[in-house]
Amino acid sequence: MALIVQKYGGTSVGSPERIKNVARRVASWRAKGHQVVVVVSAMSGETNRLIALAREVQAQPAPRELDVLAATGEQVTIGLLSMALMDIGVKARSYTGGQVRVLTDSAFTKARIVSIDEGNIRRDLNEGHVVVVAGFQGVDEAGSITTLGRGGSDTSAVAIAAALKADECQIYTDVDGVYTTDPRIVPEARRLETITFEEMLEMASLGSKVLQIRSVEFAGKYKVKLRVLSSLEELGKEGPGTLITFEEDIKMEQPTISGIAFNRDEAKLTVLGVPDRPGIAYQILGPVAESNIDVDMIIQNVGHDGSTDFSFTVPRGEFAKAMAILEQIKSHIGAREITGDNKITKVSIVGVGMRSHVGIASKMFRTLAEEGINIRMISTSEIKISVVIDEKYLELAVRVLHKAFDLDQVPA
Amino acid sequence: MALIVQKYGGTSVGSPERIKNVARRVASWRAKGHQVVVVVSAMSGETNRLIALAREVQAQPAPRELDVLAATGEQVTIGLLSMALMDIGVKARSYTGGQVRVLTDSAFTKARIVSIDEGNIRRDLNEGHVVVVAGFQGVDEAGSITTLGRGGSDTSAVAIAAALKADECQIYTDVDGVYTTDPRIVPEARRLETITFEEMLEMASLGSKVLQIRSVEFAGKYKVKLRVLSSLEELGKEGPGTLITFEEDIKMEQPTISGIAFNRDEAKLTVLGVPDRPGIAYQILGPVAESNIDVDMIIQNVGHDGSTDFSFTVPRGEFAKAMAILEQIKSHIGAREITGDNKITKVSIVGVGMRSHVGIASKMFRTLAEEGINIRMISTSEIKISVVIDEKYLELAVRVLHKAFDLDQVPA
């Protein structure tokens, strides 16, 4: 008998029929003798409906009251799922974030979890109940309802799993695991049996949006065993999904590269010929940050002749705004020229193995060069190498890299 | 400066536009320097939508979980109304029943209020906030969400007014007060400046559905000054509504009759010639009650020759079912005959004054007789007299009684 925390997202609970399907899946785990806590999101579309309603009343909804409103979405789901479970003979009991109690700070609409009181859940589990908890929400010290921000249900599930010292936290999604890359681009893409937390973090932030980044960080911090599974697979025929592991568990034979991530939503801006002096990076990025533009990659090369070039990437929707800001500050910072390109894309290879292997980067660059793909920017971290290339080469680049690093081969 | 509790029902908050109207009305009371607590219902249609959703998942929804679901209706409204208030510069803060905390028993879907902690509300009022509270809901000792049953928002408002010792509890509806009878039947019907709690109870239970009965009982018990007002009147041109008073406040000149109530939804069943022995009433009504049929009037006349006749009224929708039950038990109880009529209606005159005046009943019966209206059943209480007559005479009966008791005349 294990204690399992399961999380089902908005699509999985998007209709009464789907909620009944989730109930049957939960019941099958109970039937195997496991204790189960289920964390759920709002029914798909519900959160957007509530936010639209709020905006009709107040253009910039007051954050505390927006959370009061938004929290009803998950509250409806916990009630319905508990009913669906009871309807098939499974004892169940629902809890809002406040009832659990999931204590958060008071940063409404983007609160962070401070602590979780596991007393109520533990008692109900011991009495044989499935406990159904509203994800995405908590209460602050004053008893006000808070939400963790969109997608926060994953974080709720991991935090509850950590508090309960659960044997496993299962995140049910519409994919049956984490893949070496997007199967729509590379048909040979393979489901990974395991992936490390750090790789998962890089994969998530690079566009493989299977899990919320915060939930992965949280799982890593509290050593929660996290598994990605599909909520669409037929009962009794489920695959094992992908288990997210700690680095210390990794075998030596771990392949060097685990997967290839990419992000189409990138545009690149370059400030050419700025004086190479302290503070120049802040002078350029300060005004961009103040306009709430998200900046992804930032690259500055060594200067020469007292001047340097400075590049960064932003989401494409912010490209025009970012260009306008750079043009405004151009003369003030003494730049020679501003250039930009919004037809670019970022491709990254990710793997904890790469840090102990030389030659990964050169293999990546050579593979791309052999296909005539020009690399526009390069950025590296401990466990990933990202390159910016022309958008038109994206599919080709992902395919040749996937093959070059033997990702289509099941590891020995 | 007064402390006022206002309650707005589902129709008054049925859309973002209407919620903004309520906000403006609340703001106008704040502008006069009053402290205001607002109790709201779910947006009209919302509670039914949620219950329908529950039934899709479980034919007989589990009561605890149904309350979890239903309580979201008011929670949405408190968030939206607080936003609407802030949007026009009024400081506001929302509370669910659990946050207040409105402590109830654990009778899910029909809980009763045990106590109200007024600390949070008092503090916010003193800080200059309008406090917006979700009606219809509370929490039990275990922290589970409860609801007071449909229409319970009136009761929430009165209970909160009692806990705060508010100067007045204002129930906003779609009528501008309590009338001597239905103005659609008697154009001369007059709005009452005041009505006693007991009269209001009789008026409410007899079909003048302005206020929930339980809220009136509650107001009487805790001596809450209750006022019925219209939420549709133009701002700055509001009438005074109808104040519900305690009997001890009544002047001696109080008119004997305050109003005329009626209920079209009645059907009459009679069991003729049953043995006049102990237990016969139970033998007849027991099976009816077990079938969950609501019984209104019950009349049994003195027996003669060892047998008696027994009559009662039920809602028309239950008439056929009740007749079938009586036919089934007919031989068992030894009845001679079963008769029924679903073309009847009940008309009642109500007034605390009548208990110190003889002759009210005879005046009522004479007035009806003069119009050739046959009385089929009579039932009396301390402050009301009800008669059952043929449906076709309803309007005529109400009009002549209204005139006979001078209800169209403003009292001196």
Your description of this structure?
Two copies of one chain form a homodimer. With 412 residues, the first copy, chain A, is an alpha/beta fold. The first copy, chain A, has two domains: 3-248, Acetylglutamate kinase-like (Carbamate kinase, 3-Layer(aba) Sandwich), CATH 3.40.1160.10; 260-404, VC0802-like (2-Layer Sandwich), CATH 3.30.2130.10. The first copy, chain A, has twelve helices and 18 strands. In chain A, helix 2 (46-57) runs antiparallel to helix 3. The longest helix of chain A is centred in the N-terminal third of the chain and has 25 residues, at 63-87. The model of chain A has no long low-confidence stretch (mean pLDDT 89). The A-B interface holds A 16, 19-20, 50, 53-54, 56-59, 61-62, 64-66, 68-69, 71-72, 75-76, 78-80, 82-84, 86-87, 92-94, 96, 98-99, 120, 143-145 and B 16, 19-20, 50, 53-54, 56-59, 61-62, 64-66, 68-69, 71-72, 75-76, 78-80, 82-84, 86-87, 92-94, 96, 98-99, 120, 143-145.
- What is the H/E string of chain A? EHEHHEHEEHEEEHEEHHEEEHEEHEHEEH
Most extensive interface, chain pair and sizes:
A-B, 39 and 39 residues
Overall outline of chain A: globular
- Give a count of the beta strands of chain A, DSSP E runs of length 2 or more: 18
Which architecture name of the largest domain in chain A does CATH use?
A: 3-Layer(aba) Sandwich
**Biggest sheet overview of chain A:** 8 strands, mixed
**Any idea of the CATH topology of the largest domain in chain A?**
Carbamate kinase
What is the number of helical segments of chain A per DSSP (H or I, 4+ residues)?
A: 12
Strand order of the largest sheet of chain A: 3-6-2-1-9-11-12-10
C-alpha-based Rg of chain A, rounded:
24 Å
